[in-house]
Amino acid sequence: MIANRRQRINLGILCALGAASASGSAGQQPSVRIEIDAGRIEGRISPLLYGQFIEFMFEGVKRGLHAELIRNRSFDEEPGATGLSRYWERYPDDRNDDYGISFSRDAAAAVPNTARLEGAVTPHALRVQVGPGVVMRHGVYQARVPVRGGLEYRGSVWMKAESFTGRASVALEADVTRGRVYDEAHIANVGGDWKKYTFALRPAASDPLARFAILFDGSGTVWVDHVSLMPGNAVNGVRADVFEKVGALAPAFIRWPGGNVAQDYHWQWGIGPRDERPSWTNLSWKNELESGDFGTDEFIRFARAAGAEPSLTVNVEGRGATADEAAAWVEYCNGPATSVNGAMRARNGHPEPYGVKYWEIGNEIWGDWVRGHTDAATYARHLTRYIAAMRAVDPSIQVIAVGDNDMAWNRTVLRLAGERLDYLAIHHYYSHRAMDGDLRNLMARPLHYERFYGDIDGALGELAPDRRPRLAINEWGLDVPESQQYSILAALYAARLMNVFERRSDLVAMTAVSDLVNGWPGGIIQAGSHGLFVTPIYLVNSLYATHLGTERLFASVDGPTVSSSREGSQVPVVDVVASRSADGHRMFLKAVNSDLERPQPARISVRGAAVSSSATIERVVADSLTAVNGFATPDAVKITRASIRAGNSFSLDLPRHSVAVITLTAVK
To answer: Please, what sign has the CA dihedral across residues 480, 481, 484, 487?
Structure first.
């Protein structure tokens, strides 16, 4: 229940709010009073505060971020009874015996791949035996290939032939037997050793569930490998629709390749000519096969094109990884073209060093679910070795070490690590189990993290000033049902937590929600083969990142409070934080109303600066708690924008269950 008394709370130590009913409505006396002092700077906000995180997790990279439309394009998945590997089917269908064509997966004749490391799979090709028969148009196809009418699709396929006479074709068609052919291209002179054949298709109609076919007309044996089909609007190999949404987030950095996968991954799998890279087994996520298509060069190009700095997570002792391997990765990215690995980068098309600044040394090594799992003391010893090896290559790199929500781990790592750490990575996840059916727990949970940061401050105070890292909360998210994950509830939690990040800007320097694309329901861009939608956390993330001040201003709130069953009592219903832009002309007031039933009338006062009589307000709102974003309802939770009357004192309704970012303009 709401406390009868009100409390005046300095936002420098303000806890996150709880959700419950609060008194007050439009036209009544304000139930909330907010004061901002523009002449009182409480701290500086890191320009890196809001970044993003993506990893190889189900369709997070493949078919989520990456624009490649062909799955299992190297035929490395196990074959079925027909000899065809996963996702590939016999064309036109399996109704009748087509004795004129047969298939087998061939490990002896694949296009050569780069050198193997533990975890890479044996390469394969598809062997196609073609002969006379009564089914004239036959071959293989892959279904559920989304195409847009009029857009060019650029493709390639490697083939070699033995005593083959005839030709091959590729086509985009409706996924029905003898369905409409949207476009087709013929490949002549198929013969001899491996050769890459390129083609272009421009379908005459849009079809989110088309089929891509490779057809054979002739007689003999043909091997097929490394099939590719990319939409012509892809941005450096990234889906155009996804890239647009990533850019709108204004990410300061993007973290990759993990996540848990970082402790599976060898960076050598993802460099060199794309069709010479191996497939590898993703031990972290159901042993899925991943291609090497999206590697170091592709990731750095993507991050920089999105306006972000790349942050790379190196494998520490997982799956045979070593400190020398980590140092070689630094050299590949940052070394001169005269160095061994820098020369390799130059051969791969980028003579100039990438200058990657941020290097994370392992991921969640305290967890027994990752390869390389150890205790804190052992990790600290590994950490010291890895940093020394990597900084011997590039002394300027900034290092992110593995931290935990367990202070015993943190104290051990901070005490024993012999090298300077720039950041300590800690991950925050909150689940429906911990919430225990009480939405007030969800609303109040950021209170716990704010207290926890005080504990970390104490541990850092035991170190010399030049050895005190800042925090990188580079994974945070919710493990709740989709009905809550895609509702305004997730937005309220996210905004409240991000308010905590800004209030603790003295300590928190980097944050990233988990994940950027797909992976699990928490992926803030949900990209399917037929389109995408963004989640409420995405909306909050975009608002906060594009309204990032450089100076945090004093603010206080006087309003009602609630109690939660697990996360504390006297938790304010309305949570605010204030900041100012670098040029001093704009002030950003971020306000969260966690009341799930009623608006909160607020009176806002600003001192220390003259404020323009008009302001802009952007809100994340939903009609109800049951409204959820999805492919069919992408705007059930949305951002609204409006102009409001402002000045140094003004009134404003904070709608029920809403997040608001108010931009005030200082006048001279």
So the answer is: positive
Q: SS3 string of 237-301?
A: CECHHHHHHHHHCCCCEEEECCCHHHHCCCHHHHCCCHHHCCCEEECCCCCEEECCCCCHHHHHH
3-state secondary structure (DSSP) of residue 618 = strand
Identify whether the C-beta of residue 595 lies closer than 8 Å to the C-beta of residue 656.
yes
Helix axes 323-334, 340-347, angle to 10 degrees: 50
Rounded CA separation 103/90 (Å): 9
Render pLDDT for 425-458 as a digit per residue (tens, 0 to 9): 999 999 999 999 999 999 999 989 999 999 999 9
Residue 369 CA to chain centroid, in angstroms? 21
Q: Is the pLDDT of residue 76 over 80?
A: yes
Q: Which long-range contacts (CB under 8 A, 24 or more apart) does 334-341 make?
A: 334/393, 334/394, 334/397, 335/393, 335/394
Q: Hey, what amino acid is at 268?
A: Q
CA dist., res. 134 & res. 122, Å (int): 35
Burial class (CB in 10 A: 0-12, 13-18, 19+), 244: middle
What mean pLDDT do residues 45-61 have?
Answer: 97
SS3 at position 222: strand
How far is Cα 618 from Cα 94, in angstroms, rounded to an integer?
Answer: 55
Q: For 551-610, give the secondary structure using H, E and C.
A: EEEEEEEEECEECCCCCCCCEECEEEEEEECCCCCEEEEEEEECCCCCCEEEEEEEECCE
Cis peptide, bond prior to residue 257, ω within 30 of zero: yes
| Helix (H) or strand (E) segment spanning residue 52 | strand 50-53
- Please state whether the peptide bond connecting residue 92 to the residue before it is cis, i.e. omega within 30 degrees of 0: yes
- Pairing label, strands 138-147, 89-91: antiparallel
- Residue 275 C-alpha from the chain's centroid: 25
Q: β-strands 551-559, 7-10: how paired? A: antiparallel
User: Quick one: CA torsion of 644, 620, 567, 558, rounded to 10 degrees?
Assistant: 0
